[in-house]
Specification:
By secondary structure, the chain is mostly beta strands. It has four helices and 68 strands. The strands form 18 sheets. It has a five-stranded antiparallel β-sheet. Strands 39-40-38-42-43 form a five-stranded mixed β-sheet, with no helix packed on it. Strands 46, 47, 48, 50 and 52 form a five-stranded antiparallel β-sheet that branches.
Amino acid sequence: MKYVLGVLAIALGLLAWFAFGSNDAQLFDLESNTALREDEVVGDSLRAERDGGSGNEAEPDTTHEVREARAAPSAPLASEEPRMASIVGRCVRADGQPVPGCVVGLRGWSANQVRMDAWLKDHDEVTWDDPAAVKTGADGRFEIRFVPPNPYQFALDVRNTACVDLCAHWQRIEEGQSIDLGDITLPVGAGLIGRVLTTKGGPVADARLSLRWQDPMTNAGVDRRRDITPVVSHDVTTATDGTFEVSSALQIGTWNLHVREHQIVEPQTIEIGAVGQIERVDVLVVAEEDIEKMMGVVVDDRGVPVEGARVYANPWLRSVRYINETGRDGAFTIRRGPSDQVGPFTIHASAEGYEAAKTDDSCAWGARDLRLVLRRGASVEVCVRSKSGEPIEEYGVRVFAKPGSASPSMGMRPADVTNRGKHEGGLTTVTGLVRGPHVLVIEPSGRTWQRNSWHEFVVTDSGAPRQNVVLQPTIERVVRVARADGEAVEGTRVQLVQSTSKVPVDIKTPVFEGTNFMFMSPGANAGQQVDNEVTDERGEATLEGPAETVLALRVLGPGHVPVCQNDVVLDRGDGPIEIVVPSGARVVGTLGPVELLERLRRESGLPVSGASSAAQAARAPGVRLERKDGESTEHFPIAGKQACEPDGSFAIEGVPPGTWTLQLLTSSDDRRMYTTSGVAVAQIAGLTDGETRKVDIDLTNHLRSTLKARVVLDGIAYANGLVTLVGTGNRDVSGQQAKTWSTVRTDGDGEFEQLVPPGHYRATLQIQDPSTNRWDQLAANESVIVNPGVPATVTFVVQSATVRLVVRDSSGKKVTSVRIIAERPYDEQAIWLAEPDDEGVIQTRLPSGTWMLRVRCADYMDVQKFRQFLTRHSGDPDAWKLTMQDVREIQVASGRPAEFRVDLPASAGF
């Protein structure tokens, strides 16, 4: 019987307000699919009729911040359908007055293939219909009730004419869960209409115009209490006369424009500055006949066009925003952008189920008859049986390239389950397998049979023979975990693992769920998780796994030293598998003073009082242990950290004996800031089993501070510009330096304010050239030292000039393909310059000062040779510098354009 979902939407209801936590959720651009647009006008002067059914729904956009929606499981609602979940809220104006007539819609779709595969193992396919959109009543309230499928994610859209569209997103909503969004303030925005015209004055019909909000990354931190946030991207298609109208109001700020398959001349961005009005813009694009192109067709080895093949040029074009895909006729067009190289190029094509291909000869702009032939993959028959030869008919198949052996063409095939269903006689056929080594995994339905062991086979020119796979029945076995004195260990995680090679599993072995091990490094040992349970009050957990199969059993904690036992066979012997774990050592201590700990908690975004959600707890101050063994690093706890109590106390139980470094881990409630590593605060030497070691940590030296800065570029305030801050902290007890990165945007006066960890900070201005989409990096000469807990103020000054570099080889000929960097002795990072244009000229902008130009030797311009070089020097992060050679020194004076001749030396291969 199919899993059929009943969906009921009830408007104008008011639920009791529940205490709620937080679910991590990835942001998508969420535009509503509903056609209801009878909204009440909220703005004073914005008057635009929009039908909402234009079909311009945006695709998911994952380039913005991760959002959180506070939702906590609760008891089922008192309803005839106890599995109903609910979302409630109230739409209000900025002054708190309710807004009736808002359209609220819910959408659901598959969260990811892993969750869907897990669901389908024991269930039929999900049937889901989005509930009908509802409208807020006179009190501004709404309620949507529905039965959430387990493998689904959800988006809630809120729309009202003259207001900015709002959206919320949840990766998962549980059955019976109540989500209360509280008061949802609707920001008033502005409308946008316009036309898309060519440089010759003609309208551009059916052009897809994309608008993306340029996140100002303002000084204020992200408000984690907000569960529903503005939509930051819109797509609209022009009419036959080139006109367009964005069906939603846009929020104040800068919006980037892009017209797919067209080159925008102007404007690259638009400013929305006044709410309640309708902005108008004419977007000018280069006429199609004035754009250089390379055109062709992709067919298979029978001459049949291949639809949806991905086509790209090598060297990679600088102006590329998306991969070209072929249409139904297999045709493709690659358009030249203003910053793209002259060539020559090799054109590549790939598609799932085909072997990748490329042109035999070099291509140039203007080519019209390129033809790429993709060889079809082979079909391989698969037969699944039990050990006794009984056909197993209910299953799905995963086939993917053997890790470490994948060519680009092989890597096109995902590891999703295919051929799921009933297969008479246990036989099925997998299609589209390209030549090379593969791994075959059978995913049986239900719990009777277990997934097979690692099964490898090779597809050759003649295909591959039938693959016979034997599945083992499921065996249940109790595992009992106790200490040496017989005390049962409750709450420890017990993991059943199968090695993907002949190498035994240990605690450090990476273990993957599903088939994520397909991405492991070549030659690396890895384990595939078979089962994973937590022990009960008796120290017992019941595990399921295949019969007659050698497995490893890992008992990971917490509360004891993690152990691993290999050579476990579930159907060998009777009774529970007894595992005795060492108690290990204890590391206890406090973080203090308490008032400083409370400050760190506030900066981490934790609530002042009440329970924290799982996501909030992950940001709480805490500690962990670390030690290195050769190239590998071991942490304890194995995953995450040990959070401290409100009074600052902490206890790490079950620590393996030996010498460790204690790290302090803190977070900032700001998505722009992250720390590359924890700060080592104590060395703990010679821990012994059963010992308790006490360590107290003074937080005084680890408090973040407010950095206020003014940025000046060439004597003018750097208004509304991007600035990257790089901070280097003091050396910790292990001799390491923590580094932090932050990207902020200045305000209209060229100023910003940012919360940063203590350290020495430098600033780099990020300036985009709209004609090439290239970012120039201009480092300020000034730096500032930020002391713990002490506000700091600085003015960053950048003096720059436009530089024209004429690049020639040792014989005086122009060079159009080369990598050159500019370095200053006191800058930590070199600046990679753009490749020369068709005339061998590099136009760039550099800060004033003395620069050394260095070039990558010609041999290493070959990507394959460069990668091989890095592989040979894999232990040296600066190995790339060995491929560079000094060329010349140049002097850049502020405000004075300069031109330099750059003669590449013959010793570098030019």
